[in-house]
Amino acid sequence: MKKITTILGAITLSLGLAACSSSSVNNENATIGEKVDYEIIGIDPGAGLMKATSQAISDYELSDWKLVEGSSAAMTAALKKAYNKEEPIIVTGWTPHWMFAAYDLKYLEDPKGSFGEDENIHSIARNGLKEDMPEAYKVLDNFHWTTEDMGVVMMDIYDGESPEKAAESWVKENADKVSEWTEGVDSVDGDKIKIGYVAWDSEIASTNVIGKVLTDLGYDVTLSQVEAGPMWTGVADGSLDAHIAGWLPITHEDYASKFEGKFEDLGPNLEGTKLGLVVPSYMDIDSIEDLKE
């Protein structure tokens, strides 16, 4: 009987907590913090976006708030679940990203500048790549596209296409743009090249596109998904030939500084990215400062 009583008590407590949480979500008088359990849904802990979010929590004195670590996939899954129910949620976000096309979202204003200014995504090559693989180097050096270009590939992947198929379709439909990247580049015969990338939707899109272009030129391409640290380390120590996922000057600032002189920055391949806290547009909140209420 005691065991049954204990179990019933646990169930009652669980149901009580769930009811309390549900009550906070639906209570119009509850604060934003109460409605989302003072949680900001983040991504992988090594991401620069997470570091910036932690800085924002400090800058805005949000001592009651918790940054939840996870992954890009877990974050978007939580966003989708909340959005479909029109429930409040706060996530770490960045553009370009397909979620801004799939959902009506907005960035919270950042008057203290915790997330910095807009960034660019850079192509990063290992030292010596120009001499070892001059044709691949030219392609990486020429590679440049827009947020709209990237958005097409990301949405195709979101809609169910494999990254490889989505990249293949984009390359086929944008032959004129690809020809600018490959102008004056000769084909090769099975030369091996290894490119790293982080599991951000934006980098999955861009890396698969550049991988397809290099494959069409005759390269034996290996795309390696790793965390940001190993990605930069790999280029610095030569185990990776390149990556096209360098978010600078803020997100990957620590890695760029740590490995200064051990890689070659080929410059931006996409301009005008943005980082910050993102909420559905139906939420009555406009600034990070509002989270203190």
From TrEMBL:
GO terms for cellular component: ATP-binding cassette (ABC) transporter complex. It is found in: Cell membrane. CDD domains: PBP2_OpuAC_like (cd13639). GO terms for molecular function: amine transmembrane transporter activity; carnitine transmembrane transporter activity. Residues 31-173, 191-292 form the ABC-type glycine betaine transport system substrate-binding domain. InterPro entries: ABC_Gly_betaine_transp_sub-bd. The keyword NAD does not apply. This is Glycine/betaine ABC transporter. Keywords: Cell membrane, Membrane, Signal, Transport. One of its GO terms (biological process) is glycine betaine transport. Residues 1-18 form the signal peptide. Its main location: membrane.
